[in-house]
Amino acid sequence: MGASSTVPAAAQTLAVLRYLAGQPAPVHAAALSRDVGLPRSTTYHLLSVLEREGFVVHLPEEQRYGLGVAALELGSAYARQEPLARLARPVLTRLVDAVGESAHLAVLHGREVLYVVEERARGRPPLVTDVGVRLPAHLTASGRALLAGLPRAQVRALFPDATAFVDRTGLGPGTPSALRDLLSRVRSAGVAREDGEVTAGFASVAAAVHDHTGRPVAGIAVTYPTELPGAPHPGPDGGDGDPGIRAEMLAPRVAAAAAELRRRIGGHVPPDRG
Question: Last residue of a domain, which of 16, 45, 75?
């Protein structure tokens, strides 16, 4: 039996909170009742309880309801406890052990990605993707994986013209149309790549992790050197040292790690990517 059949009040309360969280502004109770599919009496009862506990605020002049301070406290607690990073770390550790290259987890912040976890492989060189570092999203594999999963209108708002594009090594998209074409290829492939666009001599393969709404919330990537003195590094999985072949062999590993983390956070693949 599902949660809605065993604890209907809890399921209905969560439905109200999720609905309010997805709105750009406070809403009328009638609209909430209609869109969530609850009787009006149930809706008003739940709103009354949530208002009393601080999770909902009533705006009497507008006759609308929005999220309250207690909801903000939950968000702050989420940030403090870092559950996404904690759930991702063992996934990244297993990925690093399997491929013999360093891996990291990044989240999108505007036109940049913020690195929140890095697992460095033994004997591999240090990377610029240390925890707390921000890099241009359109140049990184993680950023591209995340941007490819966003609504196209949101990507256009982030990168409206050529002035929005930062250059690091002279490579990578520099116009909205170039980025649009690149993201289309990422969506088709299911993984994103970059080669020398963040740091010369290094390439990355990344896949997006989706939340319970199907939106991309993080990117998992493996970064590997493409210019090594002496013999190429094959890695534990027996991959060839050639960068192109290496990327092909890493892609399913990275995608599998992203899928594992998606399951751990209760996410699902959006319908157009299933």
Answer: 75
Band of residue 243 on the pLDDT scale cut at 50, 70, 90: low
Domain count, the chain: 2
Check pLDDT > 50 for residue 31.
yes
- Helix or strand (DSSP H, E) at 233: none
Mean pLDDT, residues 139-165 taken together: 95
Please choose, from the candidates 61, 55, 19, the residue with its C-alpha nearest in 3D space to the C-alpha of residue 38: 19
CA-closest candidate to residue 205, choices 259, 250, 258 = 250
Q: 101-117, pLDDT tens digit by residue? A: 999 999 998 899 999 99
pLDDT in tens, 12-23: 999 999 899 888
Structure-block tokens of residue 87: 């759930």
CATH number of the domain at 65, please: 1.10.10.10
Domain of 9, in residue numbers: 3-75
254 and 164 within one domain: yes
Write the CA distances from 48 to 12, 37, 42, integer angstroms. 13, 18, 10
* Co-location of 94 and 171 in the same domain: yes
CA distances from 255 to 59, 197, 258 (A): 45, 21, 5
| pLDDT at 180 > cutoff 90 | yes
Does 217 share its domain with 140? Answer: yes
Q: Can you tell me the distance from the alpha carbon of 249 to that of 237, in angstroms, rounded to the nearest whole number?
A: 9
Going by C-alpha positions, the residue among 93, 112, 109, 104 that lies closest to residue 131 is 104
Looking at 75, 96, 113, which one is the last position of a domain?
Answer: 75
Q: Are 50 and 9 in contact (CB under 8 A)?
A: no
Q: What is the pTM of this model?
A: 0.72
